[in-house]
Amino acid sequence: DHQDISIMLMPQSPAPKFTDGAFAVAPMMDYTNRFLRQLLRGISRHATLYTEMVTANTLVHCPPSELPRFLEYDAPREHPLVLQVGGADTALLRRSAAFAQRWGYDALNLNCGCPSDRVAGSGCF
């Protein structure tokens, strides 16, 4: 079963309001990169945008100099923005939540059963 939950983060500063679920751009591997999100934000300033999924393992074990590759976005233009993190290890998922808050994301979406062949097919989680 695909389990997908979102956690609202306590912002350091007032965050933009989420829409009432009227329009959200789902996370899609290889598509919802920062360039597509900027285009979509130009189409609608009311959409809730999601990042591509990044695995908790990647965030936790990535050298700090490589983190912008996975976490950088165009602030404040892309808000509200949700970071999607995938994995099955609760300790790694917990640690990855700190990255979402530190980088100023509005929410964290946990993907604990990705149906993608690229992920599930390789036995990642």
TrEMBL record:
Domain of life from the UniProt record: Eukaryota
UniProt cross-references to InterPro entries, sorted A to Z: Aldolase_TIM, DUS-like_FMN-bd, DusA
Limits of the DUS-like FMN-binding domain: 25-123
A Pfam family the protein falls into: Dus
Keywords, alphabetical: NADP, RNA-binding, tRNA-binding
One term of GO molecular function: tRNA dihydrouridine synthase activity
Position of the signal peptide: none
Gene3D superfamilies, A to Z: Aldolase class I
Entry-linked PANTHER family: FMN-LINKED OXIDOREDUCTASES SUPERFAMILY PROTEIN
Protein name: DUS-like FMN-binding domain-containing protein
